[in-house]
Amino acid sequence: MPSNRMLRVNELIRRELGMLCESLVRPRTSALVTIVSVDTSSDLRHAVVGVSVFGSEEQKREVMVVMLDCRRQLQRELAKRVILKYTPVLRFTLDETAEQADHVLSILKNLELPEEDE
Fold first, then answer.
1. Chunked mean pLDDT (size 10), the chain, 118 residues
2. How many CB atoms lie within 10 A of CB 74?
3. CA–CA gap between residue 78 and residue 16 (Å, rounded)
4. Alpha-carbon dihedral of residues 106, 109, 111, 117, nearest 10 degrees?
5. How many CB atoms lie within 10 A of CB 24?
6. Nearest to 17 by CA among 1, 2, 43, 39
7. Under CATH, which number does the domain 4-110 receive?
8. 0.85 exceeded by pTM
């Protein structure tokens, strides 16, 4: 389990990347992009960024390509906003947790379960 300091660093980076995505990534794609998680290494040199994309498979691929294209610019802007010993090298991964949860909920909704009497 990460320390409190690392949890705060991860949350700060997640928040700042979310705002940066609005200005740098959002204009280049039609999908809704959300930064859902950041896992920074203990030496602050690397960070894995979980990206959630609401859209089609094509839009997801498009967003990931745009994120990779903007990686250096995102890191540069992050370094200006968040003062750390090192600015982590960002690595983006597609996070499909929300879609999986939505799928499970739709399956549960379609099940015909008997009503419980209380």
1. 86 93 81 90 93 87 90 92 89 81 76 67
2. 20
3. 7
4. 160
5. 17
6. 39
7. 3.30.300.20
8. no
Burial class from Cβ neighbours inside 10 Å (0-12, 13-18, 19+) for residue 80 reads exposed
pLDDT (0 to 100) of residue 47? 94
CA angle 15, 99, 18 (to 5 degrees): 15
**What is the rounded distance in angstroms from the CA atom of residue 73 to the CA atom of residue 21?**
11
Q: Which two tokens stand for residue 3?
A: 């320390």
Nearest residue to 14 (alpha-carbon basis) of 99, 61, 81: 81
Give the pLDDT of residue 88. Answer: 92
pLDDT at 7: 92
Give me the phi and psi of 45, to 5 degrees please: -90, -20
